[in-house]
Structures are given as structure tokens and as C-alpha cells.
Write a structure and sequence with these properties.
The protein has helices at about 1-25, 35-55, 60-65, 65-90, 100-105, 110-120, 125-150, 160-170, 170-185, 190-215, 220, 225-250, 255-265, 270-280, 285-310. With about 325 residues, it is mainly α.
């Protein structure tokens, strides 16, 4: 029992400690706004796309494509939005906060935090997780736009639907995975020089991403709209992943697939949730509060779920 608990801490706590390092360095003014902007650019446009390309291109897409798991991820995300909408009727009193609540509760930080947890437990992200990203990220974006349009009386939000669809196509993660699939199918191999360079960026992606998350953490946003934010955190970190894992067990997914499903549905809210919500006229204060509270709460929820998974031999 104690060994399982120590293992859980050793897996989940380093993620938080890197984010905490980013927060401390920012408060000490060692990390400045320019660094955060540059680091986010490197992570989003270079390091993580190369990581995704590496994972997909160096594996057999045909052998690793899992239709059942990807279908579960897509349908599970859509169903979770419906469940969150029902849940919101009991916990969100102001209608103008509904879009921010739903968006913040379903959109997880799968690539940044999820990949970190996968690497800590399994030693690598793996091609399947990367392929899931190719389908889940577009679903996240489409659902986000629909939710924010349908819950926003401001017609200006509707004008951003086409722009959002264009951004899906131009998303560097989607492009990298698409190129990785092509490279895998034609058996393309990078030269050692190119591969070693890509590997350096691959290694850089995860810690730099976590560092920037910590650096953008704002304590003053934590307690704004604390009641709906807390309700969102409970659903995002406990209820949603628990329902997803139970469904995965009933559908007889393998242990590695169940763990991947947990990560997909149980990671904290992505900071892009707050950015998109604000851009589309949603309640940006609640959106920011949900990001902060789920990020903080995930320290405990990730440790708890990993402990239970270790206990019942899923990992």
C-alpha cells in the first residue's frame, strides 16, 4: 500500500513541482512576460508538434490506429458536454456564466499535462495518444465554439465560427500529426542530423510547457466565482473521469487504454479555454478561475487516481 502511494506521488508530484517552479520564478521576476510569450510559441509551434510528429512517424499508423478507442474519445467528449450542461443547471445561477462553465469543465489540458503524466507512468507518450490528439483537438474546438455561441446572446460570437474552423485546420498539432501519418505510411526516415535535432525539441516540450503553465498561474483569479469554479473542478477532476473509466471498464478496454482514457477526461482545464472564452464574449473571470482551480486540484486528483490504478493493477 505504501509503495503504491509513493509511486503515485513520484508520478503526479513532479508535474506540479515544475509548474510551481514556473510560478515561483515568475513571482521573483526571473521569468518575465516576454519569456512566457516566447516559451509558449516554442512549445506550441515547434517542440510539441515535433514531439507529435516523432511519435506518429516512427510507428506503424495502420497497426496503432484504434478505432474503438478514438470513437470512445470522440463520443465521450460529446456526451460529457451534454452531462455538464445538465449539471450546470444545478450549480450555475447566472446564465451569462454558462458558456464559460461548460467550456472550462469539458476542455482538458491533454497535450501539456496529459502527456507529462503518460511519460511519467509509461516512459513515453506513444503513437496512440498522439493519434487521439488528432481527433480530440478539433472536437474540443468545434464544441467550444458551439457552446459559446449557443450560450451567448451577443451575435458577434457567431461571426467567429468560420475563423475557429480555419484555426482547426491551421493548428500545428493537427498539421504535425497529419505529416507524421504520411511519413509513417511512406516509411519516411529523417537523417540522423534531423532526428537528433528533433529529439532535443521532443525532450524540451514537456518541461517547458509545464513551466509556462506555472508562470501564467494567477492567485488573484483563483477565488473569483469560487462556487461555480469549485463545482466545475469537482466534475472535471472527479466525476467526469470516473464515469469515463467506468464506461471503459464495462466496454472491456485494455489497462493501457483505460489509463489513457482517464488522462483524456481527468486532466485539468486547458488555459486555452480561458483565452477562447474571453475572445468569444464569455465570462473570462469564471473561465480563468476554473483553469486555476482545476490545475491546483489536479495535484490531488491525479495522485488519487494513479494510486487507485496502481492498487487495482491497471498500471
Amino acid at each position: 500500500m505504501l509503495d503504491n502511494f509513493i509511486f503515485s506521488l513520484s508520478v503526479a508530484l513532479p508535474i506540479f513541482l515544475i509548474m510551481l517552479s514556473g510560478f515561483i520564478l515568475k513571482t521573483k521576476n526571473i521569468i518575465k512576460k516576454d519569456f512566457i510569450t516566447a516559451a509558449n510559441f516554442i512549445v506550441f509551434y515547434i517542440a510539441l508538434p515535433l514531439k507529435l510528429f516523432n511519435n506518429v512517424s516512427r510507428s506503424s499508423v495502420v497497426d496503432n490506429f484504434n478505432f474503438e478507442l478514438i470513437s470512445f474519445a470522440i463520443m465521450g467528449t460529446i456526451i460529457s458536454v451534454a452531462l455538464i450542461y445538465i449539471y450546470s443547471k444545478f450549480v450555475v445561477e447566472e446564465k451569462n456564466k454558462l458558456g464559460a462553465f461548460i467550456h472550462g469543465t469539458f476542455r482538458g489540458n491533454f497535450v501539456y499535462v496529459g502527456f507529462s503524466l503518460l511519460e511519467n507512468v509509461t516512459g513515453a507518450v506513444g503513437p496512440l495518444a498522439s493519434l487521439v490528439v488528432a481527433f480530440v483537438v478539433p472536437i474540443y474546438n468545434v464544441l467550444a465554439v458551439l457552446v459559446l455561441i449557443l450560450t451567448n446572446s451577443n451575435n458577434k460570437a457567431k461571426n467567429q465560427f468560420k475563423d475557429a474552423l480555419k484555426n482547426i485546420i491551421k493548428n500545428p498539432f493537427i498539421i504535425a500529426i497529419g505529416l507524421g501519418i504520411i511519413a509513417s505510411l511512406i516509411n519516411f526516415k529523417m537523417t540522423p542530423l534531423m532526428q537528433n535535432t528533433a529529439n532535443y525539441f521532443d525532450v524540451l516540450a514537456t518541461p517547458l510547457a509545464l513551466l509556462t503553465i506555472g508562470a501564467t498561474f494567477r492567485v488573484d483569479k483563483l477565488f473569483i466565482d469560487i462556487k461555480p469554479a469549485a463545482a466545475s473542478a469537482i466534475f472535471k477532476l472527479i466525476i467526469n473521469p470516473l464515469l469515463a473509466v467506468m464506461a471503459a471498464l464495462l466496454l472491456d478496454f485494455s489497462n493501457s487504454e483505460i489509463f489513457l482514457i482517464y488522462i483524456l477526461f481527468g486532466v485539468p482545464t486547458s488555459i486555452s479555454s480561458a483565452i477562447i472564452t474571453a475572445a468569444m464574449g464569455g465570462d473570462e473571470n469564471l473561465a480563468a478561475s476554473i483553469v486555476m482551480l482545476t490545475t491546483l486540484g489536479s495535484v490531488f486528483s491525479l495522485t488519487l487516481f494513479v494510486f487507485v490504478f496502481k492498487l487495482i493493477k491497471i498500471i
